[in-house]
Design goal:
mainly alpha; Rossmann fold; 4-stranded parallel beta sheet; 10 strands; about 55% helix; elongated; binds iron/sulfur cluster
């Protein structure tokens, strides 16, 4: 064995040892977390991971074409240059070469490598330009980020230099390597070509091996961790929060790194720091203290700080929640600023789960410390006493339905249960939306009934605000009543109720077929049971977070509205929709500084329409409030059921809808 090969083996072995030592350390850290089963559907998970990473769909989602392109090129650059790296290392050691592929494939591989080097240079220029000239506010220009761009630059320069001198020394003219050949022609007359060949070889290899060791010690750990993170992503409904066994759990919620799961840790080290969650968070956009990226980072920093202490048996760990704002802890103020809109999860390219962590920490505050904003404390008391957050008498819950002569399930069995929800049952403004929907159902001959006063709040607000006990109490009460009357199909007015009953009641044994009322309207329209005339009014539709992002219902409301209005799209719509600011009980709470609903209101005003269609009572409340604050009460906020009812064609002779 010559000295060159020996040196290569030693350097390669040291790099591998350092790499795996770090991986082993991380593995030990991960073992301090709680377990969670994410090994189900392994085949499906694996195929999705392959598709998502190879196609780089994660980078292209949400029209992020600029960073998406650079990321795509870097990823495929690594894939295509990897065979070269293998050959450079294993060639001298065991004589490995890709020539066994046969001439056409071998030449195609080297052509692809030359082509990708050109694309990497373009992507590098774009990345430098974006980071240091455009400088988006949501990405940090850390030393780590600069170093990685410098390393990639060195890698493409040295691989091209190495190949150029290799060709020049061999005296060949391989047309299938046009870039390398171009540089080879430039260096054919350079003296000491062998020296330069070794120079580029070692510089290239040294950079690659440094990169290998550096990755797991740096923020670029995501280059490795994002693969398993995509594999282990949440495959359940997005709107489903984790179940808590209240009888068996000694501690509810999270305030210590050990209360989180290994998947939460994986989220932390998979974060690419792209800032898309920050860029799309309505709380951050309105200058609240919450930044979803920091939630993920706090988990990572807390793990790196506390795990070694825990493994050494020390108890002086730093809690995850603290009034002191630093990189190891999150403040209660940050936690309560979240509207649970789900936009951070929607936009994260590596499928991180911000919201469960936020709610878990709220659970700790509420269930263990009894700590929450005053408005929430009042709402919880009212929910306990009366089953609605304002404290209206529970015996009045069924009044609206009764006034419309709607039977209760106790009086008469029906095909559908119309779940009124708190706003539907008590809110004076939302009343007209419910009445309109009831009229449509009646005229279409749909068999439906309510639970009357036996209905209570669905529990969404309590759960997302951290009061798991109250949620389960309310949910069980509803489930018991629904089961008692043999309810199978449920229509909800509110997307929050829809999400909770559909996705979370099954955790407590409540399995029903659940429809949002817009799905029923779509069905009636498609079946020809209702026909709409177009008012031609210019309108926009505001996607509620819990209907759109949480449950993927984007088309039903649009299909209906297109039949009776001149429907335009807001800049931020569908998956990009901007929250109204009212989720998880925020509609009851004081909002300091810039208001989220007014920000959404301004986006609507810019569109120049007079009609805004909503499909959620909380959105209606928040957007009407926004229009008042912006002195634009000429823009009317209407529920879809109200718009439909106004534009429905009725055969008056038969007194039925034609
Ligand atoms: S759920 Fe919405 S408000 Fe909460 S952190 Fe995510 S983006 Fe921000
Ligand atoms: S959590 Fe996801 S979206 Fe947010 S910065 Fe990290 S990778 Fe980007």
């Amino acid at each position: 064995m010559d000295i060159f090969t020996l040196a290569l083996i030693i350097v390669f072995a040291i790099a591998l040892i350092l790499f795996f030592l770090r991986i082993y350390t991380l593995y030990k850290y991960f073992r301090i977390g709680r377990n969670i089963n994410r090994f189900d559907q392994a085949g499906k998970r694996f195929l999705f991971m392959l598709y998502d990473t190879l196609s780089q769909a994660c980078s292209r989602r949400h029209k992020n074409y600029y960073p998406g392109f650079t990321h795509f090129i870097f990823f495929w650059g690594f894939i295509l240059l990897f065979p070269s790296i293998m050959e450079l290392i294993l060639g001298p050691i065991i004589g490995f070469s890709w020539e066994f592929l046969g001439t056409p494939l071998y030449q195609a591989l080297f052509f692809a490598q030359d082509a990708i080097v050109v694309l990497i240079v373009i992507a590098l220029a774009m990345a430098f330009y974006r980071r240091y000239v455009i400088r988006p506010y949501y990405i940090e220009n850390s030393f780590d980020a600069l170093l990685i761009l410098i390393l990639v630059t060195i890698i493409v320069i040295t691989i091209t230099g190495y190949k150029a001198f290799q060709i020049a020394i061999a005296g060949t003219y391989p047309a299938y390597m046009p870039l390398s050949l171009f540089f080879a022609n430039l260096v054919r007359n350079v003296p000491d070509k062998t020296f330069w060949l070794y120079f580029f070889y070692w510089f290239h290899l040294g950079t690659i091996l440094f990169f290998l060791v550096y990755i797991p010690y740096s923020k670029h750990m995501h280059l490795i961790a994002s693969f398993p993170n995509i594999f282990f992503k949440n495959n359940g409904p997005r709107g489903e929060l984790s179940y808590v066994d209240l009888e068996k759990s000694e501690k509810i919620g999270v305030n210590d790194i050990r209360d989180l799961t290994w998947k939460d840790y994986l989220d932390g080290i998979s974060c690419t720091e792209c800032g898309r969650c920050t860029q799309n968070c309505p709380a951050y956009q309105t200058e609240k203290p919450l930044n979803p990226k920091n939630v993920i980072h706090t988990v990572k920093y807390s793990l790196f700080h506390n795990a070694p202490l825990i493994l050494e048996g020390k108890n002086d760990t730093v809690p995850l929640i603290s009034e002191k704002q630093d990189h190891l802890s999150i403040t209660p103020e940050e936690l309560w600023a979240c509207t649970t809109c789900g936009s951070c999860i929607e936009h994260c390219p590596v499928y991180n789960e911000h919201l469960q962590k936020i709610v878990d920490m709220r659970r700790y505050l509420v269930m263990n410390e009894g700590s929450m904003p005053n408005e929430l404390a009042d709402a919880f008391k009212n929910l306990e006493r009366t089953g609605n957050p304002w404290g209206f008498p529970s015996v009045k819950r069924g009044s609206l339905a009764k006034s419309k002569n709607i039977k209760t399930f106790k009086e008469q069995k029906a095909e559908y249960l119309l779940f009124m929800g708190c706003m539907g049952a008590y809110d004076s403004r939302y009343r007209s939306a419910v009445e309109a929907f009831i009229e449509i159902l009646n005229k279409c001959g749909i068999s439906f009934a309510t639970l009357g006063n036996e209905e209570t709040c669905c529990g969404d607000m309590a759960r997302r605000s951290g009061n798991e006990y109250l949620f389960q109490t309310l949910a069980k009460k509803n489930i018991d009543a629904m089961k008692k009357y043999g309810v199978e199909k449920i229509i909800t007015m509110c997307p929050h109720g829809y999400n909770t009953i559909k996705n979370e009641y099954p955790q407590l044994g409540g399995n029903f077929k659940v429809y949002h009322y817009t799905e029923i309207l779509q069905m009636l329209l498609r079946d020809g049971k209702i026909r709409l005339k177009s008012s031609g009014e210019r309108a926009v539709y505001h996607d509620p977070c819990y209907l759109g992002r949480y449950n993927g219902i984007y088309d039903a409301p649009r299909e209906i509205l297109e039949k009776c209005t001149y429907l335009l799209e807001l800049e931020k719509s569908r998956t990009e929709s901007f929250c109204c600011g009212g989720g998880s009980g925020r509609f009851l709470m004081e909002e300091k500084g810039k208001r989220i609903n007014e920000e959404r209101g301004r986006q609507i005003v810019e569109k120049g329409v007079n009609l805004v269609a909503v499909a959620c009572p909380i959105c209606m409340l928040m957007l009407e409030d926004a229009m008042k604050s912006l002195h634009r009460e000429d823009i009317s906020i209407k529920d879809i059921s109200e718009i439909i009812f106004k534009n429905i064609e009725i055969n008056t002779q038969k007194d039925e809808i034609i």
